[in-house]
Design brief:
By secondary structure, the chain is α/β, with parallel strands linked by helices. It contains 18 helices and 10 strands. The C terminus is likely disordered.
Length: 590
């Protein structure tokens, strides 16, 4: 099934969640349009024929005869307007119900996708694609009910009406309409490749804009403004050029459609006049046919615009449809086990793992590591040795290829991901904060926490000292990704978050790397207290921060090269001893 069909099916299923509302909306709207466009003009034509007869008969007392016709036009016209307005209200109600469902389904999907999925996507492009997807739903639903159904019904009924009085005219209109639709669909399909190219260019442009603004600190720090401006300019002109080609194709199509319209009007007018001259048509019916033909031309001219809007909407939605069609890389089991944390023992058993974006790059192969309950483990090794990846696998940010990872004997692949991560406090190397208040950021791992609990955690993380100096204190917004705070302040907030969460397993990935020595010394005391009676995994390039660990594990290209206490590893005079030797001011020499 193609992407276009998948997109339309997604939107159709969304509308069918409210089947009765959708049916009522379409039915009421169509009834109003049929009354307004077909029935009322037909009554008017009957009145005109009566008028012609009375005038030809030189009768002057015929006014009462027209009252039923006039009353019918007035009454049915008002009913038609009421039904049309009611249909629009119901349509708005339908879209109000469906749009949140679509937004939530996209958000749920993106939240459930793995970190590796998001690492390969522009966040700005995802936002733009999600917005275009929901906007496309509104456009397609509007066009289907307001335009397509009205057009199909009115054209069909008008031709049937004409067939009763002028079969040749109706036959000519039918043949022309079918030919017109064929030409229109063919031209639209040819134009879609230009629209798709323009939509793809728009996503790239939006992604670059979000990427540059999101990393504005790096841009300014490396004087990259001119380079980013040049790149953005190239992308903007590329998008404009592709959009222009799409517009030119649309204008060419409209020119062809316009010529076909002229041919239709000429053909129907000529046939109608001929039929009237032969006595096959009354004046009223001749005028009625002209009204119907004018409506037909208007409707079918709208078909060109309808096809263009449908094409644009489908094209806008296709990128998100393709994304939603991708399988979620890390999924919960069909029948998950309930997590039972008893002690906090961690086992990596014969584990193999290959980075999904490069299947030839195997990082871990038959890797085994046992961490006792309550044990404090330090992970050391050169960049790329697998330290951070190991902790991310424990959190199940990615799935392993073989073997198992177990907590207290339970395979984490058989657990709800949310249950697993609730029992692990994780402080990443680069803590990312939400553009929310400091209180909300600290309480993210424990949303129900009181202000007093948040303040206590901030005190222990030595974050309170700068928070309380801010005018709004804990209600201060930190900016996107915490940009208003320094690196050290962001890390202290992340540590406070872990302290407040109070989970039985603690994972610290360079949790104090951005702190000055004095702040680090204070926080280390808090972390040491926090690690009591907990299983802890600590990654550090600054080896002085892990000297007191129960055991230090040295990783080298995904294998355990050495393990033991600080003193034991120094005596071995291996990789750890060499790293220690090259320390300068407590930092690892890369």
């Amino acid at each position: 099934m193609g992407t276009t069909q998948k997109t339309l099916r997604l939107f159709w299923r969304a509308n069918m969640r409210f089947k009765w509302l959708f049916t009522a909306t379409a039915g009421i709207w169509l009834t109003g349009m049929i009354l307004q466009k077909i029935i009322v003009p037909f009554i008017g034509a009957q009145a005109i024929d009566l008028l012609v007869k009375q005038v030809n008969g030189h009768s002057l007392d015929y006014w009462p005869m027209f009252l039923p016709y006039l009353a019918g036009v007035l009454a049915l016209g008002l009913v038609a307007l009421a039904l049309i307005d009611l249909g629009l209200v119901l349509l708005s109600r339908l879209e109000t119900k469906v749009r949140p469902l679509l937004r939530n389904s996209i958000f749920d999907y993106l939240m459930n996708q793995s970190l590796s999925f998001h690492a390969n996507k522009f966040s700005g492009a995802l936002v733009a694609q999600a917005n275009r997807f929901t906007a496309a739903y509104v456009t397609l639903t509007d066009q289907f009910i307001i335009t397509f159904l009205r057009m199909f019904t009115n054209v069909g009924i008008a031709i049937v009406f004409i067939a009763f009085f002028a079969p040749m005219v109706a036959l000519a209109m039918t043949i022309w309409t079918l030919f017109f639709v064929y030409i229109n669909v063919t031209l639209t399909r040819r134009r879609m490749k230009y629209s798709r190219a323009a939509a793809a260019a728009d996503s790239i442009l939006t992604g670059h804009l979000a990427d540059a603004i999101g990393n504005i600190g790096a841009v300014k720090g490396f004087a990259g403004e001119d380079a980013e401006k040049a790149t953005h300019s190239d992308l903007a002109y590329d998008h404009a050029a592709k959009k222009y080609r799409s517009w030119v194709a649309a204008i060419r199509n409209d020119a062809v459609i316009g010529m076909l319209m002229v041919v239709l009007y000429f053909m129907v007018l000529a046939l109608s006049i001929y039929a009237a001259m032969e006595g096959a048509l009354s004046i009223g019916l001749l005028l009625l046919i002209q009204v119907y033909v004018t409506q037909l031309i208007t409707e079918l001219w709208g078909l060109s615009n309808l096809m263009r809007q449908i094409e644009q909407a489908v094209t806008d939605a296709e990128e998100m449809t393709d994304i939603l069609d991708e399988e979620v890389q890390v999924t919960d089991p069909a029948k998950p086990e309930k997590l039972r944390i008893q002690k906090g023992t961690i086992d990596f058993k014969d584990m193999s793992f290959t980075h999904s974006d490069d299947k030839s790059d195997t990082l871990f192969e038959d890797f085994t590591l046992h961490i006792k309950a309550g044990e404090k483990i330090g992970l050391v090794g050169h960049s790329g040795s697998g330290k951070t990846t190991l902790t991310r696998l424990l959190l199940r940010f990615s799935d392993i290829d073989a073997g198992s990872i177990e907590i207290d004997g339970q395979n984490i692949a058989r657990l709800w991901q949310s249950d697993l991560r609730k029992v692990i406090s994780y402080v990443p190397q680069e803590p990312i904060l939400f553009h929310r208040s400091l209180r909300e950021n600290i309480a993210y791992g424990k949303p129900q926490a009181t202000l007093e609990e948040v303040q206590a955690a901030a005190e222990r993380a030595h974050a309170a000292e700068f928070i309380e100096k801010l005018p709004l204190g804990y209600n201060t917004l930190v900016g996107e990704r915490g940009i208003k705070l320094s690196g050290g302040q962001r890390q202290r907030i992340a540590v406070a978050r872990a302290i407040l969460k109070d989970a039985p397993i603690l994972v610290l990935d360079e949790a104090t790397s951005a702190l000055d020595s004095e702040s680090e010394k204070l926080i280390q005391a808090s972390l040491k207290e926090l690690m009591k009676k907990r299983t802890a995994i600590v990654i550090a390039h600054r080896l002085s921060t892990i000297q007191q660990m129960d055991r230090i594990v040295v990783l080298d290209n995904g294998t355990i090269a050495e393990q033991g206490s600080h003193r034991e590893l120094l005596k071995q005079k291996g990789i750890y001893a060499e790293l220690w030797k090259h320390q300068s001011g407590g930092f690892l020499e890369e």
